Amino acid sequence: MSDRQNVETLSRVATAIRRRDLQMIHNAGLGHIGGDLSAIDILVTLYFSVLRIDPRAPDAPERDRFILSKGHCAGALYTTLAYAGFFPREELDTFVQPLSCLNGHPDRNKVPGVETNTGPLGHGLPVAVGAALAARLTQAPWRVFVLTGDGELQEGSNWEAAMSASHFQLDNLILIVDRNRLQQGDWTERTMHLDPLTDKWRAFGWSVREVNGHDYAGLLETFSAVPFEPGKPNCIIAYTQKGRGVSFMQDQVTWHHRVPTTEELAAALEELKEVAL
């Protein structure tokens, strides 16, 4: 497959996943659609072009590990896992229903492809550091990818983990920051200054790249370059838009934790033209 064909395929898959995620959250009456939509292009690029995984063997020892630290955006992860073949897409209809495996936060004991339970913010990166260190100690070839929200970086546990990753020279660890600049309630910079974020990660001993988190070609190029520097953990700051793909949701803090009405769902699906997969 050519690079152009690959990008076109990723775009089509992401559109289908956005549509399904919107429908799923509307039907469930619960979800975090804004953060889901900002992260979907990153998730699709990882699961359909980057991660060394086999949905038929989700626990294969040599697999790459992916951890969704921003666990409240489980809807985006579930939908991506279903489209990648980890479980039937029909199960998405049970999202957050009683006795469903698809809880509001990911549960590794219930959902194939989920590496660790997340939800409390600031936990994913510390777990990822432990996993990357385990791979190093056992000389295993697998890599560890972890996606955090930017507001989540206000949790101090992330910076303790950042120091550890640099100290142990974990160049098999890849952190992606979903830099949509919004968190629950307000812009991140009004809540607690994060910038200059790139300089902060470099000061902690990480090798950092910046990328448009909705540019598949840019994401593919960036992921293909890891490790960026031998002996340094990798940080990718992915600039995204909360609510990406739906004009009236983009960059709107109200869509952090809001469910679309029937009319809003119809308008959103009209903007996201249906594709056949």
Strand content: 5-15%
**C-alpha termini separation:** 17 Å
The computed structural class is alpha/beta
Largest sheet composition: 5 strands, parallel
Q: Under the CATH scheme, which architecture would be assigned?
A: 3-Layer(aba) Sandwich
Q: On the 0-100 scale, what is the average pLDDT?
A: 96
Strand order of the largest sheet: 1-2-3-7-6
Number of strands: 7
Name the overall outline.
globular
Task: Offer a concise description of the structure.
This protein is an alpha/beta fold and 277 residues long.
Task: From the structure above, extract its key features.
277 residues, alpha/beta, Rossmann fold, two-stranded antiparallel ribbon, 9 helices
Could you explain the architecture of this structure?
This protein is α/β, with parallel strands linked by helices and 277 residues long. The protein has one domain: 3-Layer(aba) Sandwich (Rossmann fold). 40% of the residues lie in helices and 12% in strands. The chain is built from 9 helices and 7 strands; from the N terminus they run H-H-E-H-H-E-H-E-E-E-H-H-E-H-E-H. It has helices at residues 3-28, 33-50, 74-84, 124-137, 156-167, 188-191, 197-203, 216-224, 262-271; strands at residues 65-68, 144-149, 173-179, 182-183, 186-187, 207-212, 234-239. It has a 5-stranded parallel beta sheet, with helices on both faces. Strand 2, helix 5 (156-167) and strand 3 (173-179) form a beta-alpha-beta unit. Helix 1 packs across helix 3 (74-84) and helix 4 (124-137) runs parallel beside helix 5. The longest helix has 26 residues, at 3-28.
